[in-house]
Specification:
It is built from two helices and 28 strands. The chain is mainly beta. It folds into two domains: about 1-155, sav2460 like domains (Lipoxygenase-1), CATH 2.60.60.30; about 160-385, Sandwich (Immunoglobulin-like). The termini are far apart.
Length: about 375
């Protein structure tokens, strides 16, 4: 009887995990040639596949059927997993070989993507017109089946593209100097345009960026061009020179709304907890300089009038505030930079692959030392964040 029960549990488990997603890509072959790319991660394992040939990755959980090998579409991908995050891209087939640099090729070919879960249609995406040789289409959360459309064209695929903004106003910064150094210690430089944008062509590997501008505190960022060779995008907020503590939060395109929380001693007595719903001024100044509600950031907090005592800084995922199992904060590419005495004092990157809606980043003790915490947890009520 015990053996039968164990076999029954195994059977039930197999049924529960027998989830299959299918992604079909079709286009007008008389107008262009597309190539789909599916990258994804399950736990700590990462992989990507091109739709041009038959291949498998992630122990057979990520599959490319191969171009022309299915009657369903020109390229077909399968995801055999009920967990993990996957991102789907389209590139012009010859863009990376510099055979044709017409930025309208993808748009002219009228790509169409259909996403199925166990044979049921989840989404049908007609890619709108746009200019670029690479186009991000969507991200899939395999645990929930949520398809998050994020259709965005890029001029090429192997590029690092960044936007530099003022940490206090959020306005783009023109003529910021970007120095990028590769693993061979070779350095290139560029200035941001009037929209604060810079672009570097890149190969696979790790890059270090130094960002500077007169009147602002210089900072660094690390970017890696992965084997999938899809565009890497960063946002960096430069802080005007300041002696007091200034804390700057930036993140990626998802989630849409992250909130900074700072708690500590009130110079007038008692304690405070500052966040977007509680922006009372302390010592005549509002510590929350900028609240960003539409992705990327920056969200900036400045301790204009320090008091005796310790401070605590956290980031709350307001978009997914009710989801205990969400990993979207952990996958947000969030970064926190702490400035003071006209220099960068510390920087933090959000821990990867943790569930929760609150990232407790650091504390500042009574000696004004920055103490890293770097833990993610779930909080039911944002008012309880301290």
């Amino acid at each position: 009887m015990k053996l039968k029960f164990i076999l029954f549990l195994i059977l039930i488990n197999c049924i529960l995990v027998a989830v299959e997603y299918q992604i079909n890509l079709s286009w007008d072959e008389f107008e262009g040639e597309c190539n789909g790319f599916l990258s994804g991660s399950i736990g700590e394992d990462h992989a990507f596949l091109s739709g041009g040939g038959a291949a498998e990755a992630l122990e057979g959980k990520l599959v490319s059927v191969g171009e022309g090998m299915s009657t369903d579409a020109q390229q077909v991908f399968k995801i055999k997993s009920n967990e993990g995050f996957f991102t789907f891209w389209i590139k012009d087939k010859f863009a990376d070989d510099d055979m044709n640099d017409d930025p309208n090729l993808i748009s002219m070919s009228k790509p169409m993507i259909s996403v199925f879960k166990d044979g049921t249609l989840l989404d049908l995406i007609k890619v709108p017109q746009g200019a670029g040789l690479a186009c991000k289409i969507f991200t899939l959360d395999a645990s929930s089946g949520a398809v998050d459309r994020e259709i965005k064209y890029y001029p090429k695929s192997r590029i690092i593209v960044g936007r530099i903004v003022d940490a206090v106003t959020g306005e783009p910064l023109k003529d910021a100097l970007i120095s990028i150094t590769d693993y061979m210690k070779q350095t290139r430089k560029a200035l941001t345009d009037e929209t604060g944008i810079f672009i570097f062509e890149s190969e696979i590997g790790q890059y270090k960026l130094n960002i500077s501008r007169e009147g602002y505190i210089s900072t660094n960022a690390n970017v890696r061009m992965g084997a999938d060779e899809t565009p890497r995008e960063i946002v960096c907020a430069l802080s005007p020179q300041i002696k007091e503590f200034r804390i700057v939060l930036t993140w990626g395109s998802r989630p849409r709304d992250l909130d900074a929380h700072l708690s500590g001693p009130n110079p007038d007595g008692g304690d405070f907890h500052i966040w977007y719903r509680n922006k009372y001024p302390i010592g005549g100044k509002d510590f929350l300089d900028r609240d960003d509600m539409d992705r990327y950031g920056p969200e900036t907090v400045t301790i204009y009038k320090p008091a005796v005592g310790s401070y605590s800084y956290s980031v709350h995922d307001y978009t997914n505030r009710d989801s205990k199992r969400s990993k979207k904060l952990s996958r947000s590419n969030s970064q926190v930079f702490v400035y003071g005495q006209n220099k960068l004092l510390a920087s933090f990157e959000v821990p990867i692959n943790f569930r929760g809606n609150c990232w407790h980043v650091f504390k500042i003790n009574e000696k004004h030392e920055i103490i890293p915490i770097n833990k993610i947890k779930f909080v039911k009520d944002a008012e309880s964040i301290h």
